[in-house]
Amino acid sequence: MPFVKPSQSTTAASTPAEMYRDLPPRPDAVPGLWAHQSEMLSAFAALTNKPDVALELPTGTGKTLTGVVIAEWTRLSRRARVVYACPTQQLAMQVVAAANRESIRTSLLIGPHAKWPAAAETAYDSAAQIAVTTYSTIFNSNPHLADPDMILFDDAHAGEQYVGEAYGVMLKRRESPAEYAAVLKAVAPALDGVFLERLRQGAPDPSIGNDTRLVVPLRQPGMVAALDSALGDLDAPLKYRYSMIRSGLASCLVYVSYSGILVRPYIPPTHQNRLFTDARQRVYLSATLGEGGELERAFGRLSIDRLPAPATAPRYGRRFFVFPEFVEGVDATEFAQDVVKAAGKALVLAPRIDVAEQDAKDLAQPSWPVFGIGDVADGMAPFADLENGVCGLAARYDGLDLPGDACRVVAMDGVPNQDNLQERFLQTRARAGAAIAARVRTRVIQGAGRCTRGPHDTAIVLVLGKDLSRYLTRPEVTDALDPELQAEVAFGRENSQAFSAGDVMTNVAAFLNQATDSTWIEEAEPYLKSMRKDAVKTDPSGTVALASAVSEEVRAWASAAASAWADAATHAHEVARLVGAGGRDTAGYRAFWMYLEAVWSDHAASEAGDTAGRAAAGQLVRQAERVQSLGSWVREMAPFPSMERSPLGAADMVAVTQVAAKLVGGVNQGKLRSRLGEIHFGLSKRSPSEYEPALTELGKLVGADAFKPKGKGRCDSVWLWDNELWLALEAKSDHDPSGVVPHKEVRQANDQLRILASDRGTSQAPVGSATVIISPKPGIDDDGAKGAEAHVHMVAPPIAAEIAYDVESAWEDLLTKAPGRTPDAVRDLVADVLQGRGLLPTLLRERLTQDPVNPSARDDLAE
């Protein structure tokens, strides 16, 4: 029968929560807003005049519902167009489904604009419906959406990945070999010859895979034009990416590695996108607010107002972190298999596809299906419906919902700190990891929450591999987590280290069977509650300094994109000054910006014919080298026109002189090759009697005075370059590859440089000297890590093996090229080869000190 249709009110709801209450109820809608959602909506209503607002809504706290309610309220109250943007098409479809359940109608506009449904596009154009789309629809060379009043960005904490990607050209060697070669040719004049030779080899050598070099085309004659010529011939879709940055190519940086080349500005010039900048308001829905300015950098905004998560936000589901690497005396892979078998299913997340796929195969039982991205491209339902199985995905830390019993294990392998070559350079070469620390932490947090979407969900987080296991023991990482997560990680770590494999599996069973077994509730939960109450969230050192500089960073890159070089340099100077307040925690990032200031200052001075300005720019480069300290990437950079490359430091000169003297004096090639073979053999063994002598012989071949110190309690090998730089090596090759390095061995490492200094009759070791524990174990005892001094670092044995390979390659190169050269020319050759292979003392120190045992320790040997 027909319904009576009373006249409709024309008065818009005064608040988003009021509008939500007026929505027609549907059987599958949520019962109502949680208290924290209502609080967030009320708080947002007071900020409608702010151009950029970020809302913190952690995993499992109803972020999507909050976002669509804000979008619909804005559309109705302002009678304006609103866009809801998601990182992927799959997430966009999930948002549409969630909005429909709440009687909020949407227009799904994804994929090529020519294929958008006309009715949906018209509904958006007329402000009759919210447009739900992807980041790429907004950040492209020719957006086809009608101008919106508001844009909401879901999962904004992943913005760098999706926005930065739009403003860059990534040429993967395997996928685009001709294009890679063309761009490499364009930037080749800025790369040293040895590194260039290694890049041009048909197969990568063992150590080049991790090496990323920075090229700044602006200060290399003709390079911007050559780069434009190489990139201008790209086919779709790369040519569209290039069109996004072509006008500002002179401001772009080039990151070069064996696997690929990335061309992009450091901060995306989103100010050039009128669809983005002309919106009255941009709203960022994020699992974390990024207190160090991460959101501003990712989206290219000067400042973003923040609304933190209300205290009433519900607890997410319970996670039990299990660290197979820390369980003493077991094969970590076999133990992880047992955990997955007990749970029945597992989602595997890793930064790289090959790792994710291999882990998925390793963890699955023989009869189980193994899924990949192709099986879940349209959603996780096919995997969720399986009774048993494993799904392996790469670089997917957001948007995967497996609540309840859909999956009870998420396995994570690898630290997601090198999502692109820019991140890899900042992390490994510039030592500027502080600038990306929050986004890396967020990726791990998001990944760990894929199977705990609601407060009643429970899931095991299986921490695979040494790198991620070690990462989750670092105080600067764990202290920055919320108290609940701090407690979960600490509880899992302690219970993995303290018990036998059988005991840990008993705990796993208790966790999985809480419905029928009260053990976990009665014994584990009280302990977790106590740990949570004791935990205090602490931002890493340097966070305040990074946040203070972000607006100047955005201004600097906007100026550079407009070729306003003097203005760019002025802003870069201010960035360096502000981040300098972070001390050694932000020293690498400060050096990065000082170098950029030097580049832009030199170019501005060159255009103005300012000789004094160019000299000052050269001094800035020297200063950036000093701030970066030993092993500086700055010295690898091609010098500016009319500027000489910095001379080698004292330690590096010692090594070059020693190696050159051996070449000039004559080398028995047969004996040398036999010696290298013995080194490789020794470094492949666990026995200290074979490993330690090989380590010492390796040091001799890089120009060090290398030996095993005599006396009780001394380290296993020392590499000394006069009194300029010392490396004390504590070889623990016979360690079992599971468990943690004992506290007593860290205490012993603390003493090595002091003992060595005393033995050599000096008051202290040279500035920058380091002690390196070489161990296959994945972690350090907690008390040992807390008590470690700043000079103590840890590496895995494969690092030493990589160095041995580079030493062999370097000597083969030297023996081929040295004959017939003068002594001075031999020294120049040695310097080039050792630098190109990463074998100068300062570069060796960089390679061996990527992993400080206690990053927060005061460094008495710092410059």
Radius of gyration: 29 Å
Strand share of the residues?
Answer: 5-15%
Main-sheet strand order equals 3-4-2-5-10-1-11
Largest sheet: 7 strands, parallel
SS class? alpha/beta
Shape: globular
Q: Count every beta strand, where a strand is a DSSP E run of 2 or more residues.
A: 24
Question: What does the average pLDDT come to?
Answer: 92
Which runs of at least 5 residues are low in confidence (pLDDT < 50)?
none
Distance between the termini: 85 Å
The number of helical segments is 35
Estimated helix fraction: 40-55%
Overview of this protein structure:
This protein has 35 helices and 24 strands. The model has no long low-confidence stretch (mean pLDDT 92). The protein has 863 residues and is α/β, with parallel strands linked by helices. Helix 14 (332-343) runs parallel beside helix 22 (501-512) and helix 29 crosses helix 30. The N and C termini lie far apart (85 Å). The strands form five sheets. Strands 3-4-2-5-10-1-11 form a seven-stranded parallel β-sheet, with helices on both faces. Strands 12-17-16-13-15-14 form a six-stranded parallel β-sheet, sandwiched between helices. A five-stranded mixed β-sheet has the order 18-19-20-22-24, with helices on both faces.
